[in-house]
Amino acid sequence: MSKHEKRASFIFAVVLAMSANPALAAPLNQEQVSSQLVGKKLHAKKMGMPVQLVYKNNGTVTMKMPFMSGKGTWWFKGKQICMDMINGPRRGLTCVTFEHIKENRFRNSQGVDFTVGK
């Protein structure tokens, strides 16, 4: 294999690895989060349990899990979406970014994968 073929092969491998690894994707900006996630039901599994998260258009957020639920408020801080849960399993302040994985799937900066419902 020539020097140029090795270089091309290496570059192809790096590009392939970057596209296959969603952790290298750029965080969504506020406009993208608003249009793709806000007002939608986000479904995930946390420790094997189903979780539903909804960032509502009015600035409130709800979280539902089997046998428990929570609510609070959310806002943007740069590319982060922050929520302050006043009750439920994740009380307190949390700020995360989201990245698009594919189709209706997203991952937050805590490594939780979400599927967007209606």
Describe, in plain words, how this protein is organized in 3D.
The protein is of the alpha+beta class and 118 residues long. It has one domain: Lipocalin (Beta Barrel), CATH 2.40.128. The protein is 21% helix and 47% strand. It has a nine-stranded antiparallel β-sheet, with helices on one face. β1 and β2 form a beta hairpin. The N and C termini lie far apart (51 Å).
What's the short story on this structure?
The protein has 118 residues and is of the alpha+beta class. It is 21% helix and 47% strand.
Supply database-style keywords.
118 residues; alpha+beta; 2 helices; globular
Overall CATH class = Mainly Beta
Strand portion, in percent? over 45%
Q: Distance between termini? A: 51 Å
Poorly predicted regions are: 4-23
SSE diagram, text form:
Blueprint: H1 3-20, H2 30-36, E1 41-46, E2 49-55, E3 60-65, E4 68-77, E5 80-87, E6 92-96, E7 98-102, E8 105-108, E9 113-116
Antiparallel strand pairs: 1-2, 1-9, 2-3, 3-4, 4-5, 5-6, 7-8, 8-9
